Amino acid sequence: MNYKNLTPQENEYFAENELIQIIPNFKEDQFQFISGTFGPFRPAKPVTVPLWLAIYLKSRNKCSIQLPKWLDYSCLLTIKSIEKEIVAEFSPDLPYYYYEIATLLFNNCSDEFSGVGQQSSNLQKLKSVIEDIYEVRKEKLLKSIRSVKAEDTPIMNLSSIGAVELNQVRPAFSSAYSILYQMQNLMEQNADETQVV
Amino acid sequence: MNYSEDGGSPLQNDYGHQSSNTGGKAANKGGQNGNQKKNQFMTPADYLSREQDIYGGDLNGLEDMIDNSQDEERQIDSLNADHASSFFSQSFKNQLNQNQILTGFNMSDCTQNLQIKQLQQLLHNEKSSPELLPYQTILIDKVTKLINNQEQQLQAPVRDTDDRFFFNIHKMELERVKYMLKSYLRTRILKIERQVVYIIEKDLASLLSDPEMQYAWTLYENKKNYFQVAMFNKIPTTLNPFEKDQLEERMITVPNSSEFVFARFLKSHDVFHFTKDIEAKIDKDNIYFLPYSWIKESLQVGEAELV
C-alpha cells in the first residue's frame, strides 16, 4: 500500500470538511463539535456548516442547501472559457476540492439545482460543464508538467490546480522526476570529477 | 454517508491494527509471548485510550473539568501548539476569506477549531513527504484530549428521538475527527516500518513519539533476530553487517529527499532562493511542483504545506 497517494475517497473526506451554507427548517442550539461550533439553528436563517453535515441534514429533509457562488452555469462557462484562453495558469475562481464538492452536491441534493425559471436539465448542463473544465485542466496540467526541465530549473508553478487533477499525475510524475533529477545530479558530479582529473 | 452506525471511518482499513499484528508476528518469532508484546509498544488505538485510562478512576471530577476547560481547550482563534502556529492561524484566516469570496457565503456565524485544521495540514504533509516529519506532541495530545472529552460527554443515555438525531450527528463528527487522527498515526507507522533501519541507525528518535520509538525498536530487534536465525547463523560472523559497530552506508535505505512533491506556499516571496543558482518568484496560495529538499525549510516553519 502506498501511503503517498490519496485515494478519491480520502479526497472526498477532505472535501466534506469544507464549509457550505444551509437554510435549516428546525430549531436547535449550537452544535459543539470538536472541530468548531456551528449554529444556532433557526428556521429560515442561513447557517454555515461543514458539507458532510449539510448532506446528512439534507438526507433527513431537515434543511435546504445554498449552492456556492461558483457552482452556477454562467459562472462555470466563464471559467471554462478563461481556462481555454490562458495556457500557463489555472483559474483561481474554483476551490481546491471543486470537483469533489460538485459531485457530492450533484449526487445528494439534485433537487436544489432546478430553481425557479430554470430548465429541468440544469443539473445535466452543470455536470457536463464541470466535466469539461476537468478535462481542459487535466490536459493543461499534463502539458505544463511535461515541460518541467529536471536538469535546468525543476520547478513549476501550477497556480490553483485542483485536488482531482493532482491526484491523477502525482504517482507517476513524482517518482519519474525524482529519478530524472537524481540522474542529473549524478551526471553533474561525474562532470566535476572529470574536470578535476 | 452514515458513518455513525458502524462507528468506523470512511475508509475501513485500520492499518494501525494491521501493523500491530505484523509486529506481533515478529515478536513471536523472536521468542517473546503475546503479553509481553502488549506492554512493549502501543498501537495507535492504545495511544488513543491511554489518556482515558489516566482519568478512568475519577469520572465525576472529570466532567466538572470538561465544563470548565471546554472553551479553553477548543481555542477557537488563538493557538499555541507550536512556533509555526501563529503564522498558521494567520494563513488560515486568509484561506477563510478566500473561501468566502469563492462561495459567496458569509461564514462569520461559525467558529472553527484551528487544531483540527492543523491536523489536516499535518496529515497532508506527512502523506506527501518522503521523510518522516517530527511528531507534533503538543497538538496530538490536545486533539486526543478533545476526543476523549467529547467521548465522555456522549456517554449519557439519550431517549428522546429528536435528541437521538442530534446525538448521532455529534457522534458522526467525533468519528470523523478520530479517523483523521488515526490516519495520521497510521501514515507514520507505515513510514516508520519502511525506514526502520534508517531511523535506528541514524538515531532519529527526536522525530518519533515514545510509543513510536518503542515500536521501531521492537521491529528493529525482531528483524535482526530473524535475520540471525534465518541466515547469519549459517555464515561466518565477519559477513554479518549487524555485528559491526555501524551498518555500512549502502545497506541503509535513505529516504529520497530530492523526490518531487506538490506544495502550496502560504506566503509570497519576491525572490525565493532555492539553491545558490536558482531563484524564483513565489506567489501566495499557489501550488508548485518541485523537489522536496527545496521546500523542506519552508515546511518546517509552516510557510508551506504539501498537497
From TrEMBL, chain A:
Gene3D superfamilies attached to this UniProt entry: 1.20.58.1020, 3.40.5.50
Keyword set includes Nucleus: yes
GINS subunit domain span: 82-175
Xref: InterPro entries: GINS_A, GINS_bundle-like_dom_sf, GINS_Psf2, PSF2_N
Annotated compartments: Nucleus
Main subcellular location: nucleus
Keywords: DNA replication, Nucleus
GO biological process, any: double-strand break repair via break-induced replication
Gene Ontology cellular component annotations, sorted alphabetically: GINS complex
Pfam families cross-referenced by the UniProt entry: PSF2_N (PF25005), Sld5 (PF05916)
Domain named DNA replication complex GINS protein PSF2 N-terminal: residues: 7-66
Subunit organization: Component of the GINS complex.
Family affiliation: Belongs to the GINS2/PSF2 family.
Name by which UniProt lists this protein: DNA replication complex GINS protein PSF2
Record organism: Stylonychia lemnae (Ciliate)
Taxonomic lineage from the root: Eukaryota, Sar, Alveolata, Ciliophora, Intramacronucleata
Automatic annotation (TrEMBL), chain B:
Biased composition (Low complexity): 23-39
InterPro entries the record matches: GINS_A, GINS_bundle-like_dom_sf, GINS_Sld5, Sld5_GINS_A
UniProt region (Disordered), positions on chain: 1-39
Record's keyword terms, sorted: DNA replication, Nucleus
Every GINS subunit domain range: 147-227
GO cellular component: GINS complex
One Pfam match: Sld5
GO biological process assignments: DNA-templated DNA replication; double-strand break repair via break-induced replication
Localisation per UniProt entry: Nucleus
Biased composition (Polar residues): 10-22
Name of the protein this chain belongs to: GINS subunit domain-containing protein
